[in-house]
Structure formats: structure tokens, C-alpha cells
Amino acid sequence: MTTQSFKARLRWSLPLVLVAGLGGAELAGRALGFGRPLLYRAAASGYEPTPGQSVHRLNNHVTINDMGMRGPATGATPRPGTKRVLLLGDSVAFGTTMTDDAKTIPALTQAALGPRPIEMLNASAGGWALENERRWLGAHGAFGADLVVLEVNQSDLTQGFAPASMLDVNANFPSRNPPGALYEIVTRYLAPRLHLTKAAFDPGSTAENDIAPEAEIQATVQSIRAMTMASGAKFMILYWDMRDPTTTAPDRRERLFAWARANGVVVVRPQLAQRPDADKLFIDAAHPNATGNALIAKALVGPMLEQLR
């Protein structure tokens, strides 16, 4: 083969190799679940997971039922003889897409309840503030729940309403699928790591938000309780301490607890961050992993059963 013919073949073969490599990488990315992220829609609550999704990513399955809640299909009211618990929260309750459906707090609580005729519902979304949750409850109701458990984490004590305007602007909250798996990998993950773009963030687990007035936060919690009781359900709080056990608003936390005591509101506070094995219980600074979720579920069962008597 002459040098000239070799160069000619090389000019033709390199583009083919490149195309084949990109095609293979795209297929591999799609096999891992990239290119089809969890989608959100604008709603009265600000934004919500789009109903009717089944997303697989990195061996984790995320199901959004037709009611827009994470988990299996359910009816608008509980089955006869079945009691219902609605867990209302943010990404801690939701579990993030790094957690399989079966390993979220509501799912693990359901498993811990055993054969008891009690159904757990998971009304949550990443980034939600308490005001998002109040608006969700106002728009959808409690679905016939006998008990509403409000998940409050330390960031909720200062976070204001998360609006629909963040959809598609924040890469963690897309309303439509990206052009492909490689596009998502590059724009959502690779570029931020290379400091080419700013990383997407969960507004419910960052200090970047403006500080909401304490009176608004307290009023929102009290409104959620009032709406819950008006629906005929009981109310309790799951308070979540992040990996950093400190909070920017310890006085707000203590006043929330004082309000709860004064009003007979049960507060469950599994302080995983203080355990000696805390490093094994978190995905990141804000979110528990499956093992952490199981410990939270175990802490919830007893107080829940007391409330459901």
C-alpha cells in the first residue's frame, strides 16, 4: 500500500471510527438511564414530578404514579379497612434519583409496618420548601389520609417558595428530555465538574437561598396542620438533621419544637448525624442513603401507630 493510499483510507476511516465510538457511547449512556431524566411540570405547588413516569437510572427505579406521587399506583381514597399515611416533604422524603423506589423512607416504612393494613403515600419533590408543600396539599388534598407526616429539615426553616421558573433553568429540574444521553452527561455532569458551567443544585439543601422570614415559615407549618386536621387526619412532624448537625437557624428550630409541644404535635427526630456510623448513612451532606432511610423508617413506625389508634 502506498503512503498516499494509506492516508486516503485514514481520512475516510477516522470519521467512521469517531461516529461508531460516539454511537456506542450514546447507547451505553442510554442503557444507564441518561437521556431520559425525571421530568417536572409547573403546577399550583410551583412544580411537581410529571405523573405517569417510570425512570431507570444507574440501576435505580423511580416511579411517579398517575397521582404525581412517587411509588406504586393508588386510588384517590384508601381501600376499605385500610388506613393511609401521607408523607409530605422534599428530596429527603422523595429519596432523589440515587435511591430506588423500594429504598425511600415511605417505602421502607411500609415494609417495616409488615402486614398491617396501612398504606404509605409519598407526596414530595426535590427542592420543595414548606410553602410548596402547603400549596400541594391545598391543590390535591390529603387523599383520604388518616395521618399526615410533614418532613421538615433544617434548611426548611429558612427556605422560601421554590417557583416553577427554575424548571429547565436548573438542570436538576427538566420539563422535557434532552437531545440525548451524551448531551445530558456533558451538560449536566461533565461541564460543571470541569468548571465550565455552574453545577445544578437542590434549593432545599443549600445555603444559596434568600432567608425567608420566620413568621412565614411558622405560619406555613401551622397552615399545613390546620388543613390536615380539616381533612379529618392527624398531624405529626418528622424533623431531619442534615449531615452537618448545625443549623443556620437553631432558634427557629427550638421555637418550632416549642410550638409542637404546646399544641400536642408529635415530633420524630432521628439524629443520624450524631451516630458513630454517620459516614455510612448519607449520600451527601443533606440526604440519607438506603441504610439511613431504613433507620428513619424504624423510628417512624412506633409514633405513627400511636397516632393511628
Automatic annotation (TrEMBL):
It comes from Novosphingobium sediminicola. InterPro entries: SGNH_hydro_sf. GO terms for molecular function: hydrolase activity, acting on ester bonds. This is SGNH hydrolase-type esterase domain-containing protein.
